[in-house]
From TrEMBL:
Stored SUPFAM superfamilies: Phosphoglycerate mutase-like (SSF53254)
Protein name: Phosphoglycerate mutase-like protein
UniProt source species: Tilletiopsis washingtonensis
Signal peptide segment: 1-23
Gene Ontology cellular-component terms listed: fungal-type cell wall
Keyword Disulfide bond found: yes
Disulfide bonds: C286-C301, C458-C466
Amino acid sequence: MRLCSAALLAAAALTAGVPGVAPSPLRQQVLQAPPMHGVKFNPLEHMSGIAPYHDAPGANISPPKGCRSLAMALLIRHSSIVANDDEWEDYMEPFVQRLDAHRAAGAALPESGRLAFLREWQSPINNDNLEQLTQPGAHDATVQGRRLRKLHPHLFPPMELGRPGGKEALAGKVKTPFKVWTASSERDIETSKAWIRGAFPEWQRGDDGEGDGKFLTLVKVPNKNPDWGASLTPHKVCKGFSKEPGKPEAQQWLETFGPRPLAALRDMAPEFPWELNDVIALAMLCGYESVIKGVGKTEFCSVLQPDDFRDFGYWNDIKYHHFVGYKSPMAPYLGMPWLNTSLHNLEAATTGKHPHLQSGDEPAPIPPNATHTQFLLPYFTHREEPPVVITALGLMNQTAQYDLPLDHNPADRVWKTSHVLPFLGHVGIERLTCDAGSEGSDYIRVVINGAVQHLEHCQSGPGKSCPMEQYKAFVAERMEQYGDIEGACGGIKT
Ligand SMILES: *[C@@H]1O[C@H](CO)[C@@H](O)[C@H](O)[C@H]1NC(C)=O
Ligand SMILES: *[C@@H]1O[C@H](CO)[C@@H](O)[C@H](O)[C@H]1NC(C)=O
Ligand SMILES: *[C@@H]1O[C@H](CO)[C@@H](O)[C@H](O)[C@H]1NC(C)=O
């Protein structure tokens, strides 16, 4: 890499991926503490996909000794939404309608106790605001963007680029804008814009986070265009994919654990026509009201008991296990396009000229699976994608020991979607560079919501990371096994 001026040198000092420049010390080891930190039992840590972002247990993103982060691909679920339409229709709406009818009829509700609030409560969810990003959700995305910039400044293009009154020489060197990719649904786009507002200075981020087009571009990847969609939203182009798997199994588990909380509800409000599904509705309302109104601002989180919330978490685990986990014959196939794309670009990050300053002599490539030279590769998408990537990686696979039982909630299970799927939950594939070892100096590690994972058959690197060459062989092998997405899906929708 050639540096042409003192200004450039100063800017490059922010980029630790540059030979000869010391890595910036890692200041903090976690991305974010759990919401309601300090509370002994926190239902929001047992809510699977309906919770504000919280790190997974054991989160610690410090690189192993002698190593630093060289490049990183992040597959991030969008931030908090008002409610998922199916969850609203199937569980919450029937409860809300019955409650409204009950009150309209002047029937009794408790005057005190944990359910007294239902006398006045109004649903903040309705058919017009489903799936919309919430205000706390946008805020959380901004906080996460800001936090990542702080933790990994060297992965971002220099702040100095384009600063008003800054050095022209610097701006002239940038030929390709830094790209952030997002699935094309409104909630993904709004999340990525909020994230960008936290991660990039105002002179790069454009008016509202779409990027100024010169230093930064937000690339909207059409959800259903198979040329692009297979890399960010494969489940939306897969003909055989359906949201039904896991529903009967989860229902069976509800019939197992549900009668206990249902009986408690009937004790508390005997006049109300409770149904078994209300156990799910109340748990969901704890999560959704928390992400709509803000953590700690809903009464629903105190209605059920800790064990009920744990069982609700397991209800979700069962559903996702069949839907996008190891019980889904399609899941690993759906995870492969991103695994292949992220590897390709983690390799490309260090090829040729300096990624953030001098790249892009060719016309800017746009699709996520083209070649991009940037140290950080952020991709925003839907809740289905992190789990399918986990199966493609073979992580959290306990199926050799047992299949998820429907008659009890096994405490030792490793498939815990509450650790994977909160809003803004993410799978990170990080390329580390370490003081030269026998196998070369670059390694891959997988980090899920701050918690480092170890690949089953590849952990000989520092901190049980996977040597780069072995990781490449692993992905190639998985491609052989699970590369035929079209076959597994029974066709690709166009
Ligand atoms: C990108 O994806 C498209 C559509 O799946 C495919 O045709 C193309 O070969 C891929 N390109 C690369 C470099 O992987
Ligand atoms: C996987 O990535 C490689 C580049 O690393 C690319 O050549 C190949 O086309 C990709 N495969 C698919 C199916 O996209
Ligand atoms: C999960 O583990 C089982 C049992 O070891 C194995 O047969 C299966 O291939 C694994 N699934 C994936 C997608 O890696």
